[in-house]
Amino acid sequence: MALLPILEFPDPRLRTRARPVQTFDATLEQLVADMLQTMYAAPGVGLAGTQVDVHRQIIVMDTSVEKNDPQVYINAEILEREGSEVGEEGCLSVPNVFEPVKRATRVRARAQGVRGQLFERELTGLAAVCLQHELDHLAGKLFVDYLSMLKRERIRRKLEKERRERASGAGKPAAKPAAQPPAHAAGRVI
Ligand code: K1U
Ligand code: ZN
Q1: Beta strand 46-48 with 58-61: parallel, antiparallel or unpaired?
Q2: Looking at ligand 1, which atom is closest to the CA of residue 133?
Q3: For residues 9 and 144, what is the distance between their CA atoms, to the nearest angstrom?
Q4: Does position 190 have pLDDT exceeding 50, yes or no?
Q5: Is the Cβ–Cβ distance between 79 and 108 less than 8 Å?
Q6: Number of neighbouring beta carbons within 10 Å of residue 65
Q7: How far is the CA of 142 from the centre of ligand 2 (A)?
Q8: DSSP 16
Q9: Is 134 a known active-site residue?
Q10: b/e burial code for range 102-115 (CB count within 10 A of at least 16 → b)
Q11: CA 82 to centroid of ligand 1, rounded, Å
């Protein structure tokens, strides 16, 4: 298994629309295993192909508290949405930024598993939010796109400053500890 590099905002490759997966083979299984390992190591609760520069409709998620429920959604689509709630969201491609986003509270999704098997599943809570967030990635959309242009610009400048500091101070200890996701995030247990 391998850890994959995660693209960071405002990398233009994050704007690429992912294409459907057509071939379910050992290469796909290896990629999914690498994506799960990358997500757990980050740490995150989800990861989309786009974020690791693979522009295919592949999503991995694990929203369980024990981190023992890896889920794979290939060629996923949302069939039904219900309710809406605003909650704090983070993104591995926008590190240490948490902002409120409005999402459906319940979704019914259809997808394929890593061997191509079709399934339908109802998701609620953090899992529903995470799937919507990951499907946005596959469409080239980021959660910062829901914010005002002013806020998005501020985030872009902050991340670019942090990247410059990281590049020039390689090897030095970080000045500030990384921000933690808010525990109350949309009543979502992260
Ligand atoms: O797609 C991504 O960037 C992953 C993202 C998913 C997500 C989180 C919260 C709401 C919606 C979507 C993350 O995993 S961000 C990191 C995060 O939530 C986390 C960080 C440390 C510990 C546990 C969770
Ligand atoms: Zn994200």
Answers
A1: antiparallel
A2: 12
A3: 9
A4: no
A5: yes
A6: 10
A7: 7
A8: P
A9: yes
A10: ebbbebebebbebe
A11: 22
d(CA 85, CA 112): 27
Give the number of the atom of ligand 1 that is nearest the alpha carbon of residue 47. Answer: 1
Where do we find the tokens 């050992």?
Answer: 26
How close is the Cα of 21 to the center of ligand 1, in Å?
24
Give the ligand whose atoms come closest to the C-alpha of residue 131. Answer: 1
DSSP E strands in the chain: the ranges are 46-48, 58-61, 71-82, 85-91, 94-103, 106-112, 118-124
pLDDT tens, residue by residue, 31-88: 999 999 999 999 999 999 999 999 999 999 999 999 999 999 999 999 999 999 999 9
Q: Cα-flanking dihedrals φ and ψ of residue 74, to 5°?
A: -110, 135
46: Cβ contacts below 8 Å, ≥ 6 apart? 39, 59, 60, 61, 62, 63, 130, 131, 133, 134
Output the residue whose Cα is nearest ligand 1's atom 7.
Answer: 130
Domain covering 12-168 assigned CATH 3.30.70.20 in the classification: no
Of all ligands present, the nearest one to the C-alpha of 179 is: 1
